[in-house]
Write a structure and sequence with these properties.
Blueprint: H1 2-24, H2 26-38, E1 43-49, E2 52-59, E3 61-63, E4 68-69, E5 76-77, H3 82-95, H4 122-126, H5 151-165, H6 169-179, E6 200-202, E7 208-210, H7 219-222, E8 225-226, H8 228-239, H9 246-252, E9 257-261, E10 265-269, E11 274-275, E12 284-290, E13 293-300, E14 305-311, E15 313-314, H10 320-323, H11 325-341
Parallel strand pairs: 6-15
Antiparallel strand pairs: 1-2, 1-14, 3-4, 5-8, 6-7, 9-10, 10-11, 12-13, 13-14
Helix pairs in contact: 2-11, 3-5
Length: about 350
């Protein structure tokens, strides 16, 4: 009897807490609603504070032809958000002493015959400062001297992981996701996902058309599949130090290179994570773009808020600032909320 009363009291207190959080952020959620409605957004948004969902919505269709409504649990291709997953896997091997960040890649990838394999480090692959344009071509620049965003660099990191762990990248990542109960996150070749939505891109005539090549990128660089709940959990695991040690997480959050970005203009790069100069403790995370999929996954350390936005329609592809308009506008709202009330 006492146990039953405790359950009722706990449930009542939990409900009160959620209601209080909802009222506190009513203005913020109302503004998010307006952004979504005014931009014909087709996707899913999840905003959490600590362990409480402040805002959760699925709007539009997972299949435009059949008019099948999206649900909050649907899965999306997450694009370059994938890179922080690959970075974490590298850093976990670094913590075990099996990989050195300043190791030259020829130590692991003996089949690359170009002389630059003896110059480029794992750190440079992680930070897009290696200069590789193709495996059979000379470097674009001296390693470490410039930044050039590279999908191939992260594919090489996956190959290094395969050498070090003696497992395929597919098997390694599948075991990793299983270990941390990320039940809706998949390597694209592990065909157990059941709720992957269709991706669409705007044609030159302005019509949204299904794109069949959403999974065409290297998995390690941009083709993992996930949903908002798992990405929210990923943030909670990563930034609480459950995936890598605190000191290693600080390496991920360190500024190593600056990029002129098609959305942010100027942005800093760590290991798989992006942030404005000096704002690692304010807003940190990544965008992702795969054909037909427009994503954002961000953490706000000062307020302990997580924002996940997954969209399956790519519009205005000649101007990524328009493509990511909903994402950046909602991010700015959450950033302002953090600055104004982050420590409450």
């Amino acid at each position: 009897m006492k146990f039953s009363i405790l359950i009722v009291v706990f449930s009542f207190l939990t409900s009160c807490h959620v209601l209080a959080q909802t009222k506190k952020y009513a203005d913020l959620t109302s503004k998010i609603d307006s952004i979504i409605e005014n931009n014909s957004f087709n996707g899913v948004v999840l905003l959490t504070k600590d362990s409480t969902a402040i805002y959760s919505v699925a709007t539009g269709y997972c299949d435009l032809e059949k008019k099948t409504p999206l649900t909050i649990n649907d899965q999306f291709v997450i694009g370059s958000i994938s890179k922080q997953i690959t970075a974490v896997l590298i850093l976990r091997e670094y913590e075990k002493g099996k990989i050195g960040l300043e190791d030259k890649i020829n130590h692991y990838l003996i089949d690359i015959k170009e002389p630059w394999s003896k110059e480029i480090t794992i750190h440079q692959l992680l930070t897009h400062t290696h200069g590789i344009v193709a495996l059979d071509k000379p470097l674009e620049f001296k390693p470490g001297s410039q930044f050039h965003y590279s999908q191939l660099g992260y594919e090489l990191l996956a190959q290094i992981l395969e050498k070090v762990t003696a497992k395929t990248f597919k098997k390694l990542t599948t075991e990793f996701f299983s270990e941390y109960l990320l039940k809706n996150t998949f390597h694209p070749d592990y065909k157990r996902y059941k709720h992957l939505v269709k991706g669409y891109e705007e044609s030159e005539s302005g019509v949204l058309e299904f794109t069949p090549n959403s999974l065409s990128n290297y998995a390690a660089a941009g083709s993992f599949i996930s949903n908002v709940a798992d990405l929210n959990k990923w943030n909670q695991l990563l930034y609480s130090g459950k995936l890598v040690k605190k000191e290693t997480l600080e390496l991920m959050e360190t500024k190593y290179a600056t990029r002129i970005h098609p959305v942010f203009d100027t942005i800093e790069y760590g290991y798989g994570l992006l942030f404005k100069d000096g704002e690692q403790n304010l807003e940190i995370g990544a965008f992702g773009y795969a054909p037909g999929f427009v994503s954002a996954c961000y953490f706000y350390p000062q307020s302990n808020m997580n924002l996940i936005i997954l969209e399956n329609t790519g519009n205005s592809l000649d101007d990524f600032k328009k493509t990511f308009k909903v994402h950046t506008e909602i991010m700015q709202l959450v950033k302002n909320q953090t600055l104004n009330n982050g420590n409450e």
